């Protein structure tokens, strides 16, 4: 009986967390006109997209991880080739980049390809240029590179390409490079779709009306530009939402952007931020202004966003990349080039991943290639149940997952075996 009461209480708490994390309070961010918006014809978020929205820079249809394969002979050829690669990032302070890098390194190791070096430029174009010059002197067979300034790094990359290095671009591309011509490919997240789904999720959270701020990146970085445009296009579907855009170039300045938006629009309903790190400055500004009810959506499901979504914080949803799959694809593109094998496409793009409270655990694991959610996110080890819909909880018995439906208007649970110990996860 005690176990049953404890379970019932846990289920009630879990249901409350789901409700709080995904539904704004009835009077939050509402103006004097509280008339509900007719949303019957509005675009709704597809939480299980199967096709990317983003196209390559020349309109190419994207390939995905499932489109790559190697024969036994090709795998042996890679191992016998004594190939060497380098990896150059514009920054590795971003959790998604770290996971992509680890996935690429792990894939190269499996293929028998040596990684000579991994560099990060800390978002400094001159630093990246110097690092690429150093890499060029190593004469790698292939290079994965995420360019920070497409103009500054172009000359040294051209020199490497002319010397025979196979270049795979990540997320953005250097000036005067064309995938399939003087470089191998561009591998990116589904940037446009991530921005578009960020818009539809945020619109749902704020009741499809009000003023929405957008902190967009005011510079050239292809995937950021794509996601920002996706957000603009997505939010344009909702006529009762007013968009107030506030561009930025430096993460550390985004707090000032948020301060200005909150001062100009005291009833600001929500904010979109182009990636997670600057969203933390927005949260700090909102907290200082007494606006902890502010709904924030960002791109990339880092730990900050995951914790906020799990606990009903200001970041209530996130559209994210499938970072492990993306890093694997980057390494596969390099391997195809080293084999002289034709790619399925010169643009590779795993499909977007919209995440809010109802699919947080599944989404976090899909993003980072995990089979088990980390204990800090769940409070205990927990196995993943794919395609978990809203208002369902997990009952785990002997490590075998079963799904128990919950009535969103009350708790009604039939336990298959009252003598077993069950653990609840929302």
Description:
There is one protein chain. The protein is of the alpha/beta class and 426 residues long. The protein is 38% helix and 18% strand. It is built from 13 helices and 17 strands. It has a six-stranded parallel β-sheet, with helices on both faces. The chain has a six-stranded mixed β-sheet with strand order 7-6-8-9-10-12, with helices on both faces. Helix 6 packs parallel to helix 7. The longest helix has 21 residues. The protein is globular and about 70 Å long. The chain starts with a helix and ends with a strand.
Oligomeric state:
single chain
Low-confidence stretches: 1-32, 381-426
Largest sheet: 6 strands, parallel
Please identify the structural class as seen in this structure: alpha/beta
For the biggest β-sheet, the strand order reads 2-1-3-4-5-11
The percentage of residues in β strands lies in: 15-25%
Helix-residue proportion: 25-40%
Counting DSSP E segments of at least 2 residues, the number of strands comes to: 17
Shape: globular
- Span of the ends, CA to CA: 22 Å
Individual helix count: 13
**Average pLDDT metric:** 84
Order of helices and strands: HHEHEHEHEEHEHEHEHEHEHEEHEHEEEE
Q: Rg, please?
A: 23 Å
């Amino acid at each position: 009986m005690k176990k049953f009461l404890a379970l019932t209480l846990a289920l009630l708490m879990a249901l409350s967390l789901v409700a709080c994390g995904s539904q704004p309070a009835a009077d939050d961010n509402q103006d004097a006109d509280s008339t509900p918006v007719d949303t019957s014809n509005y675009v709704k978020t597809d939480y299980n997209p199967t096709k990317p929205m983003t196209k390559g820079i020349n309109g190419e249809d994207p390939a995905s991880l499932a489109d790559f394969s190697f024969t036994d002979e090709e795998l042996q050829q890679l191992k016998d080739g004594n190939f060497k690669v380098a990896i150059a990032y514009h920054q590795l302070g971003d959790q998604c980049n770290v996971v992509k890098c680890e996935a690429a390194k792990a894939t190269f190791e499996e293929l028998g390809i040596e990684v000579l070096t991994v560099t990060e430029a800390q978002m400094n174009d001159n630093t990246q240029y110097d690092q690429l010059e150093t890499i060029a002197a190593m004469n790698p067979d292939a290079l994965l590179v995420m360019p920070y300034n497409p103009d500054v790094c172009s000359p040294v990359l051209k020199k490497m390409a002319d010397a025979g290095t196979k270049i795979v671009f990540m997320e953005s591309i250097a000036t005067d490079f064309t995938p399939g011509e003087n470089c191998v490919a561009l591998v990116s997240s589904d940037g446009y779709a991530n921005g578009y789904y960020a818009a539809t999720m945020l619109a749902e959270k704020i009741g499809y009306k009000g003023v929405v701020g957008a902190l967009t990146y005011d510079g050239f970085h292809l995937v950021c530009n794509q996601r920002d445009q996706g957000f603009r296009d997505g939010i344009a579907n909702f006529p009762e939402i007013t968009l107030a855009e506030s561009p930025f170039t430096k993460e550390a300045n985004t707090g000032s952007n948020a301060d200005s938006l909150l001062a100009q629009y005291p009833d600001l309903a929500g904010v979109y931020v182009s990636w997670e790190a600057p969203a933390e400055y927005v949260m700090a500004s909102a907290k200082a202004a007494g606006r902890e009810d502010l709904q924030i959506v960002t791109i990339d499901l880092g730990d900050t966003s995951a914790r906020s979504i799990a606990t009903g914080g200001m970041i209530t949803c996130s559209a994210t990349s499938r970072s492990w799959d993306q890093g694997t694809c980057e390494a596969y593109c390099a391997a195809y080039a080293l084999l002289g094998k034709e790619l399925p496409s010169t643009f590779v793009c795993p499909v977007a991943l919209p995440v809010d409270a109802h699919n947080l655990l599944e989404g976090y694991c899909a993003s980072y290639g995990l089979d088990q959610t980390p204990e800090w996110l769940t409070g205990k080890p927990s196995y993943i149940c794919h395609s978990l819909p809203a208002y369902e909880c997990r009952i785990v018995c002997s490590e075998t997952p079963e799904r128990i439906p919950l009535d969103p208007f009350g708790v009604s649970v039939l336990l298959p075996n009252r003598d077993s110990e069950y653990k609840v996860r929302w």
